[in-house]
Amino acid sequence: MMNTHPDVNPGANGNRTGTSSSSPRRSYVARHWRGDLSFGVSYWLNSLLANLAGFVALLGVRLLIPPDNHPLIFAVAGSAAWLFAIAISVWFLVGVWRSARHHKARGGRGFWAATACVAVVVGFCCLISAIATEISTQVEYWRIALGDRAMGKHELRILRGGRELEFAGGITFGVTEEVRRLLDADPEIRVIHLNSLGGRIGEACKLRDLIRQRRLITYTASDCASTCTFAFMGGVQRFVAGDAALGFHRGRFPGFTEAELAGASDEDRRRLIEAGVARWFADHAYSTPNSSMWWPTPGELKRAGVIIGVAGPRDFALDSSIMFGLLENSGAR
Question: How far apart are CA 244 and CA 239, in angstroms?
Fold first, then answer.
């Protein structure tokens, strides 16, 4: 009987099957990268996936890791999230470019392929711009995480037999907890001296809240400027020495846009007004550029409600910095 079926070579079949199993199907990520996916999937679907993945990574870091409490962890996670966002952006743009180059050969219209290539070029330019902006921000986070040496050292001293506390120097992360420990150890402290040219806004706000919670009096014998004024405003009563000064200006953080900085200044202005300070003063304080400083007179400070008054030489303990200056002068004589 004639065999009507085509000849089948089991050996050849086995060879073909073996070849197929030795070349496994590429992953979805690899297929997009090589441009093997259709143009529609590469451009539209993967655009959504790439943007969503980058957004979740960056937002997750900000929501899950408070930068004020864990600066080192935040710096590591923030840098990792940005590297991931950059990698996934490059993956998306390269995949779209390669898919667009194959689009016409697959029967698609050349116009859409060319349009996609132009969009990819624009996307790469935007990515480079975003990286250039974000680098300065990430560098600043790492400076904070590694000790913030640029802000200078700070010192804490107990004065008047445990009734007053002096803080002098840069306001860096961790300062508030140091102050809290001293307040817990000496519950009789009622006054905190603030002599600082500023520091980190987040830490200054935490220090302000602690001062307000403990109902302390704030006082400066020399200069309290920039973010130091945030902490100063936490005092239930506020005083300055006759030759002391408070300095105000807008905040700044590397990488932040003008719109972001303006929004932060509006928030600072609102909080100052809520603390009972006159609106005209708050407007002047936070319209002063960060590159300069406004030093209002004691009369302006009192008229605006920033201070209760100017303290006399015996109202508060002599600050150590002033004491050292007097000792040096007396020694010189």
Answer: 10
How far apart (Å, rounded) are the C-alpha atoms in residues 93 and 79?
21
Closest CA to 56 of 32, 85, 80: 85
Alpha-carbon gap, residue 55 to 8, rounded angstroms: 55
**Contact partners, residue 155, CB within 8 Å, separation at least 6:** 166, 167, 168, 169, 320
Span 184-197, pLDDT tens digits: 999 999 999 999 99
Write down the domain spans for the chain: 25-145, 151-332
Q: 8-17 long-range contacts, Cβ below 8 Å, gap at least 24?
A: none
The pLDDT, as a whole number, for residue 111 is: 85
C-alpha–C-alpha distance, residues 172 and 154, integer Å: 8
Tokens 């006082």 belong to residue: 219
Which architecture characterizes domain 151-332 according to CATH?
Alpha-Beta Complex (3.90)
Q: Residue 42's closest CA among 91, 105, 107?
A: 91
* CB-based burial label for 14 (10 Å; 0-12, 13-18, 19+): exposed
Residues 280 and 127 sit within 8 Å (Cβ to Cβ): no
Q: What is the pLDDT of residues 38-89, one digit of tens each?
A: 988 998 999 999 999 999 998 888 888 877 778 889 899 999 999 999 999 9
Residues ≥6 apart with Cβ < 8 Å to 143? 149, 150
